[in-house]
Amino acid sequence: MSTTKISNPQGSQNALTRSDIWFKDGNIVLISESFIFKIHSGQLERHSEIFAGMFDIPQPPEQDLIDGCPSIKMLDNPDDLYYFLSALYDGLHFASPRPLHFARIAAVLRLSTKYFVPHLRQQCLERLKLDWPIDLEGWDAREAEATTIKGAYNPRQYTAHPILVIELAIELGLNEILPSAFYDLSRYGPSKIMYGTVGIKSILVSPDEESRIVCLSKQLLVRTLRGRETAQQFLVDFLSAQLENRDPSPKCWHSQSSHSFKAHPCVQAFEQMYLDIYRCIGGVAIGRDADPLFTLAQGVDRLVRPDKVEGERARALMCGPCKSLFFTDCTKGREAAWVLLPTWFGFAGGWGKDSGD
User: How far apart, in Å, are the Cα atoms of 29 and each of 89, 237, 243?
Assistant: First the structure.
């Protein structure tokens, strides 16, 4: 960046910082706080009727020129304006790792909405919906991408922190992505949810300063924790209904055997799965105690692998019909959870229907 001194209309001297967006053949200068951008008015007029109307407003004849060009004072954040103008000139290109793109996406989405630039707005929305999907298939793809071959789960390497997304979505009325963001956040422990996260770092205004900590408001915090509790209760209810004291399938291969109910191989297998899922797979042991979509997916995963279930008296392998029926029940349970998920966080109308209370 380089610094240029100009005189303002009142005659005093203000030091303005020239941004990297500075075209020698530009014909207008945008001023945002202490930063200036020399651009081509036609480039902005081509994509935005708002800018076209803005440039048509007559400027006072005594206006001071900056680098030989008239200027317009903008009320937008300098960082936002920088990202927005960069997108207009260079386009939007996203590559891994995606969390680094959130500042740009948020800025471009904010100003493309304000100035009615539909193609940039659509690109940003599509990017956000990929990370914060509105369908279960998209969610599963997102989760699979964030899980290593060895099973390590690293969501923040692939998506921005959900608090930042919630803040942006509420600001711009992006109700469709809010349930996914709230659910993602609710999977943290309560103390982490309350602590918040590091905010977006400025690239122009204060690049050397530490980013602020962004926290939820009391209302949003209660909403998140209430949703977390509801998700946990959904999982408890499902496990109680579908695994605890579960009967074998009517087509169970062992049904005609002489086993008592407790000694029945498939019953023993279900009991062991219940303990595994309840205590370990979806529990505090790996920090996923409020993630029913993950827990039920693990239940399905155990069925498609040739895992033997150990009991004190016998080694049992769940029969095919019992596996098939429980697989169906788990799949339906995940689908039901996804349908209900928005209501857990106050979105009574479902996915994208209303903004909640």
Answer: 15, 62, 67
Take residue 314 and report the two structure tokens written for it: 């016998």
Number of Cβ atoms within 10 Å of the Cβ of 95:
7
- What is the spatial distance between Cα 241 and Cα 245, in angstroms, rounded to a whole number? 8
Of 17, 52, 75, the residue at which a domain comes to its end is: 75
| pLDDT for position 9 | 43
CA dihedral in degrees (303, 308, 310, 316; nearest 10)? 90
Q: Are residues 69 and 152 in the same domain?
A: no
3 state SS for 123-169: HHHHHHHHHCCCCHHHHHHHHHHCECCCCCECHHHCCCCHHHHHHHH
Beta carbons of 71 and 34 less than 8 angstroms apart: no
Q: Within this chain, do residues 126 and 199 fall inside the same structural domain, yes or no?
A: yes
Domain count, the chain: 3
Please tell me whether residues 239 and 338 are part of one structural domain.
yes
Asked if the structure places residue 85 within a domain, the reply is: no
Q: What is the pLDDT of residues 205-254, one digit of tens each?
A: 887 777 889 999 999 999 999 999 999 999 999 988 988 888 888 898 88
User: What pTM does this model have?
Assistant: 0.88
User: What does the pLDDT read at residue 313?
Assistant: 37
Residue 212 and residue 238 in one domain: no
Amino acid at 41: S
Query: At residue 180, what are phi and psi to the nearest 5 degrees?
Result: -60, -40
All residue ranges of the chain with pLDDT < 70 are: 1-14, 96-97, 255-263, 279-287, 303-317, 352-357
Kindly state whether residue 167 falls inside one of the protein's structural domains: yes
Look at residue 90 and tell me if it is in a domain.
Answer: no
Domain span at 123? 111-216
For residues 248 and 338, state if they share a domain. Answer: yes
Residue 35 lies in a domain: yes
- Burial category of 259 from C-beta neighbours within 10 Å (exposed 0-12, middle 13-18, buried 19 and up): middle
State the Cα angle at 36 between 11 and 71, rounded to 5°: 60
